[in-house]
Write a structure and sequence with these properties.
alpha/beta, two-stranded antiparallel ribbon, Rossmann fold, 31% helix, 7 helices, single chain
Length: 249
């Protein structure tokens, strides 16, 4: 079964009708529903080089299921499984996954949760009005493709060595925020050495400028890739996420 999806954000290089491959999605239903009829599409990171299915995928599904939310994990195309530059394939897959999940009619509300480069993919998807998502969660996300603050490995894998200024702008999520962008929760560490916190700050500034509701948790210290940090009493940021999900979704 495939899902046909319109092109993204007026981007002529994107397929007008991408047929999504459902085998790229793994479904994790909540053993006990919380009664909210809400699901989350999880997009792990990996610098567009690989997909961190265990550390950022499996841990997220366990967290979501334990709180009564259905979860799907997207194993999108990366430099390990596809030809670089990857653009626009991962974007088509993420949008296709959203449309496919909607077609299953299992949940009434659908959010997206992305980590690092997967956070970039989630943010670009969430800012596309055609995705019609209800909320987003971004964890130490790559937001901008601008040389000043981007994660270079993610940029090169996705866009190549010399992308046009217009493509860089279109693939910078902070440049795509509108008043229709769904509410967001964003986590980052101020001293993240891999993906500078300026990525999150740029996105938050854009959300505020467009009056999009958001909550953020920026800790002073924490290495990139800590995921949920559930076993770290200092850096475990999920209590703030719990609170946000309880009152915002």
């Amino acid at each position: 079964m495939g899902a046909c999806l319109p092109s993204t954000q007026g981007d002529a290089s994107m397929s007008d009708c991408h047929v999504f491959d459902p085998s790229k999605l793994a479904y994790y239903p909540a053993p006990t529903s919380n009664g909210r009829s809400t699901g989350v599409l999880v997009i792990p990171g990996g610098g567009y080089n690989h997909v961190s299915l265990e550390r950022e995928g499996a841990n997220s599904t366990l967290y979501l299921n334990s709180h009564g939310y259905d979860a799907w994990v997207l194993n999108y195309t990366t430099a390990t499984t596809g030809q670089t530059p990857l653009y626009p394939t991962p974007l088509e897959e993420a949008l296709g996954a959203v449309r496919y999940i909607r077609s299953l009619d299992k949940v009434q509300k659908l959010g997206i949760w992305g980590y690092s480069a997967g956070g970039h993919l989630a943010a670009i998807t969430a800012t596309n009005p055609k995705a019609d998502l209800d909320f987003g969660i971004l964890t130490y996300p790559v937001i901008t493709m601008d040389d000043a603050w981007t994660h270079q490995g993610s940029r090169v894998n996705l866009l190549g060595d010399s992308p046009s200024e217009e493509l860089v702008r279109r693939m910078s999520a902070d440049e795509q925020v509108t008043a229709e962008t769904p509410r967001m929760f964003v986590y980052h560490s101020a001293n993240d050495a891999a993906v500078p916190v300026q990525n999150t700050l740029l996105f938050l500034q854009a959300l505020a400028a467009n009056q999009v509701p958001f909550q953020t948790s920026i800790l002073p210290d924490g290495e990139h890739g800590i995921a949920l940090a559930l076993n770290d009493p200092v850096r475990n940021w999920t209590p703030e996420l719990d609170r946000w999900m309880n009152y915002s979704i």
